């Protein structure tokens, strides 16, 4: 997977440039097709994490020749993304290194706290080029339902980190959205129609924290807008001591806007939900309940080499090895000025279309 993934990335870089690789990784349809070509069936578990991991390993193996840098990964590895971005920026002389780190951190915070759709984000991969182009591929899991959702960001299309920032949000193909009866109501604070709630949430954080905490304590005493499956929400359901610390920290930061509030250390899903609840009650500024996932497209490239689960057939290792050899040879020849193999691949692609 590392060898074939690296060869595909280098072939795209040579033909279309590193920025085009970033655009394609930000496209859920192309990403799914890429993962299928690497040996997954069309809805294999692990496609997202392993595909991102294969490209990261290829970046380590091929170095700057790959044309794309990769930071982050699954679980605890995701938290290494800022340090990995900083190291690559120093090595490649990327002047916008701080901006890339901010983009990585903010994208992760948005999908883990500002979008509360029942999926817990556990994977974050940040792809970028020496020219400063970037995209994010991260995935959340609804453990109870056994369903995954992938979030794609494309830097060149992000005008506002907290207003419709996604290039796409896609459920695992072929499966329904993972919300269940009893889940907390969906909270989408990056929807365009939630602008007033974002502004009001920041305003609540700027208010006297004692007033805010009194209101939170009152709301925790009985039924609320955000009750779970049972009707009442009691004080035992809210970690008020922790919330008090975070509310005071948010107030001390005096956030001018929602994006700044989201960046305050310790502000996570519970605090964002609390601020949104208070913003709705105090300022009549409701959040959005619109699910950010809209429209699914399906990849059907699992027939390239087969799937690890045996669908549509077990991985054909001989064909896989021949694909790696053909692509790596084409890339090598193209970089040495021999374009005959690369042109042959383009002709083959036209015939296949």
Provide structural commentary.
- With 353 residues, the chain is of the alpha+beta class.
- The chain has two domains: 2-171, no CATH class; 187-283, no CATH class.
- Helix content is 48%, strand content 11%.
- It contains 13 helices and seven strands.
- Strands 1-3-4-5-6 form a five-stranded antiparallel β-sheet, sandwiched between helices. Strands 2-7 form a two-stranded antiparallel sheet.
- A hairpin with a 5-residue loop joins strand 3 and strand 4 (134-142).
- The longest helix is centred in the C-terminal third of the chain and has 19 residues, at 317-335.
- It is elongated and about 70 Å long.
Distance between the termini: 24 Å
The helix tally amounts to 13
Helix amount: 40-55%
- Largest sheet: spatial strand order: 1-3-4-5-6
Oligomer: single chain
Mean pLDDT: 83
Number of strands: 7
The assigned structural class equals alpha+beta
Number of domains: 2
Strand content: 5-15%
Query: Per the principal axes of the C-alpha atoms, what is the gross shape?
Result: elongated
> Using only CA atoms, what is the Rg?
23 Å
* Poorly predicted runs: 231-236, 295-299
Largest sheet: 5 strands, antiparallel
The secondary-structure element order is HHHHEHHEEEEEEHHHHHHH
Summarize the structure.
The chain has 353 residues and is of the alpha+beta class. The protein has helices at residues 2-16, 18-25, 28-37, 47-62, 81-92, 97-114, 195-206, 209-219, 240-253, 258-262, 269-283, 317-335, 340-352; strands at 69-74, 115-116, 120-128, 134-142, 147-154, 168-171, 187-188.
